[in-house]
Queue: 3 jobs
Job 1
Amino acid sequence: MADHITLKIFDIVGGPVWVSSDDGQKVFDKIVAAFRADRAVDLSFANRENMITAFLNAAIGQLYGGQYDEVFLKEHLTFRDISDDDRAMLERAIANARRYFANRAAYDQAWREVTDADEE
């Protein structure tokens, strides 16, 4: 059984506003480092004032990109100090990540078509 570590988003990001994908990447990097050290992560959402899905996509969504399977993530990542509204936002971000990574090529092609059309 892996040892547990609590990662506090507030401490990683340096404040209560979690809106940038760059800050989300910092959280993702800390989670991955813990996993590589054979540690399970309790991710704390304490002291959050503002959060958007772009942050969650970077922090959590990337975990569903194939490096870790669903079973591993369920056993090694838990969320604490999270409001019901934030949990709903988190669950949507995870569901969107699962859909994206299950059909990545199709999503990327559709994005290219849309952005190419916008440039014409």
Note: The CA atoms of residues 21 and 55 lie 5 Å apart.
Job 2
Amino acid sequence: MQITDPGIPTWPVTGLSLVVGFAVAELTGVRAIGGVVLVVAMLWCGVTWLSRQVPGPRIAAMVVLYLVLFALSHVIADPLGTWPSVALVAAVMAAATYAVADRTHPRTGERVTV
């Protein structure tokens, strides 16, 4: 059984997992369950990126960015509010993922990496 499909974009997963993870933590009152959402999402993305032969350092950079943005959402929650901060970091993560791992050439359809 194949758990990844190289054709499926990962940018919605990286972005939405931050939103869903926060929502799960809020709804259940158990922050660790929200963390499980984040870990599962990043594991799936990592396996997908490996199957696409995205270079290891680039995958590591994406994981680090994900963790930094997760932490940043906590820092900017006071001035922005919790949901706006989560939405902002999710949008940044989704855009970065698209640019680094999901973008395709308009004519050839081949993956373009920066």
Note: DSSP finds five helices and no strands in the chain.
Job 3
Amino acid sequence: MAMEMKTKYYLTLSLKQPGGYSYFGEYYLGNDSKRANEIFSGLTGRSSAYEDQALNIDMIVMEGDVPKGVKTIGCTLDEFALNCKYIAKEIFRINNLELS
């Protein structure tokens, strides 16, 4: 009997440096695809085509220990600050909905 792999969603944070981007944090969004995609869609920034952005936020879809998909936005420091506030508010809201 094969074990079912649970899909998990994360937002990872990275900063542009001379050698590329350096990871410095993450948010765990849970295992609900719809909620994770709604949160990512609510972020402010530009598509990954804008490689000149100092900060990136990636949504990574994990199936077990294997990354299965990535979406990326680049953002300015001001946009990043707004995004962190938005993400924290949404995670708080989701966790409180699950408790009620």
Note: The mean pLDDT is 88.
